[in-house]
Amino acid sequence: MRGSSPRMTKEGPSVGYQTKLFIGGQFVDSLEGTTIDTLNPHDGSVLASVAEAKAADVDRAVEAATKAFPKWSRTPAMERGRLLLKLADAIEAKAEELALLESTDTGHPIKDSKILDVPRTAVTYRYFGGMADKVQGSVVPVEAGFLNYVLREPVGIVGQIVPWNFPLMFSSWKMGPALAAGNTIVLKPTELAPLSTLRIAELMAEVGIPEGVVNIVPGFGWTAGQRLAEHPGVHKIAFTGSTATGRKVVEASAGNLKRVQLELGGKGANIVFEDANIKAAINGSAFAIFHNQGQACIAGSRLLLHEKIADEFLDGFLTLAKSIRLGNPLDPKTEMGPLTSAQHRDRVKTYCQIAHQEGGEILTGGQPPADAALAKGYYMQPTVVRAQPDDRVCMEEVFGPFVSVTTFKNEDEVLAIANRTPYGLGGGLWTTNLQRAHRIAQAMIAGMVWVNCYKRVNPGSPFGGVRASGYGREMGFEAMHDYTEAKSVWVNVDAQLPPWYPR
Ligand code: NDP
Predict the structure, then answer these.
(1) What is the pTM of this model?
(2) Is residue 268 lining ligand 1, measured as CB closer than 6 Å?
């Protein structure tokens, strides 16, 4: 079953990776035999050539998932849960290897992969493993003579499309609840960083998740992704990515009216009030934007500073931004790695030019680092730009280590700015005023709000956005409900048929 097995060492990968499609419990070549190179973002070298799924491969994967569905959906929920708990243990046992794999393929600093990506992935499978047998239907108190109960049944064959910013973690957010609820899966990881997801497929097989229950088809979005979204045999599509692609997914899904769950872009407002603990706000705001090189839909990418504390805050924030240590993601001292692809790095550079053209003031950064050791990689300096609320850099998602700074005078003004973009994913505020904290949290248009913290996530807490940031929720009972359908069953428990029935 297994292909080449990865041998990760402290210095990095030393042997091969799993590079084939995972369909029906087997690692197989693509039908046309084509491959896509996945690159090391630190130096642009080819890490591996991965089989490229095209439409016909997606069809094969959907067939395998369809075949596996009847048995898996009837497998006792406790048993499905047990397998997910085993998977969580297996991930923890391979934590070092998975962290190295994720950092090598995506550019995440290894310290982050070790303390965030891998543990959060294990915890997510464990959470949904524990939940598998706790999703219950209900009994509805209807009129006398009838029993009405509601079953929660799996949706069926689920298509999942995962982007490149957190491939390991995001695939657990999607596969955990889907599997716990009894669905079978065809997942398309991004072709830019598919290696950790393929390794998870191997672990799934090792812990005994039956063949065909999970199928992994790396490939391009406009071929494999598009086919998955439009496939008539897929009953739900769960997508994480840009708002523009989310719209295409909705259009493609219309053919068989599949359920759609969208986790799209964001332009998080991060508000610092004059009564905030400034030191905590500086540290938290740096994490909000610079963690994972700013490649996060929930990044706090718009800093809104009360005019009374703006200078003091910026002093500390710029000092911190300038001190962030860029470097090889596999170096444990690295605080910021490269962006995941050259194309994306160029997109962030373009936004630096746009800021300049719009009259924004680049307070620090704005270009790749001068360090010759990083010249081949896709690095960008942490960038802070003073800009006006309607500037493109304040309205559009940059998705990099790039934060705009704007000042405000009062609550009304800051709320108008915060709620100005088409997005509504996450936002945060820093204040020591309890009433203000709740008032602003309620007034922000967002699926998630953080008070005196930023970017906290937990498998139990619903994750997702409103408006152009999508709909549906990952995590928690909300996610389980999104992966189940309610079936209402009516039983006549009275020998007498009611009088309005035809005799
Ligand atoms: P996309 O939205 O294009 O890609 C996300 C995923 O969707 C990838 O797996 C991609 O495959 C796939 N995809 C692309 N086109 C289609 C399609 N027609 N049908 C189905 N699936 C498709 O994001 P990008 O990678 O191009 O990034 C661009 C911008 O999107 C970023 O700069 C950022 O603003 C935003 N983004 C937001 C994310 C989030 O977490 N909310 C994550 C990633 C990006 P492939 O990789 O082959 O293109």
Answers:
(1) 0.95
(2) no
Q: State the pairing for strand pair 426-430/383-386.
A: unpaired
**Closest approach atom of ligand 1 to CA 397:** 34
Q: What's the angle, vertex CA 408, arms to CA 289 and CA 299, rounded to 5?
A: 15
Judged against a pLDDT cut of 80, whether residue 202 lies above it is answered with yes
Provide CATH 3.40.309.10 ranges for the chain: 269-451
- pLDDT score recorded for residue 501: 72
CATH 3.40.605.10 residue ranges in the chain? 22-264+465-487
Query: 36 by DSSP, 3-state: which?
Result: strand
User: Which CATH architecture fits 269-451?
Assistant: 3-Layer(aba) Sandwich (3.40)
What's the maximum distance between 2 C-alpha atoms anywhere in the chain? 89
Cβ burial of 287 (10 Å; 0-12, 13-18, 19+) is middle
**263 counts as catalytic:** yes
pLDDT value of residue 2: 39
Q: Which residues contact 32 (CB under 8 A, 6 or more apart)?
A: 52, 54, 56
Distance 378 CA to ligand 1 centre (A): 18
Q: How far apart are CA 429 and CA 419, in angstroms?
A: 13
Residue listed under structure tokens 């998932």: 65
Task: Name the nearest CA neighbour of 340 among 296, 299, 397.
Answer: 296
Look at residue 4 and tell me whether its pLDDT is greater than 50: no
* Domain 22-264+465-487 part of CATH 3.40.605.10: yes
| Residue owning the nearest CA to atom 22 of ligand 1 | 221
pLDDT tens readout for residues 351-407: 999 999 999 999 999 999 999 999 999 999 999 999 999 999 999 999 999 999 999
pLDDT digits 0-9 by tens, 65-122? 999 999 999 999 999 999 999 999 999 999 999 999 999 999 999 999 999 999 999 9
CA dist., res. 67 & res. 288, Å (int): 43
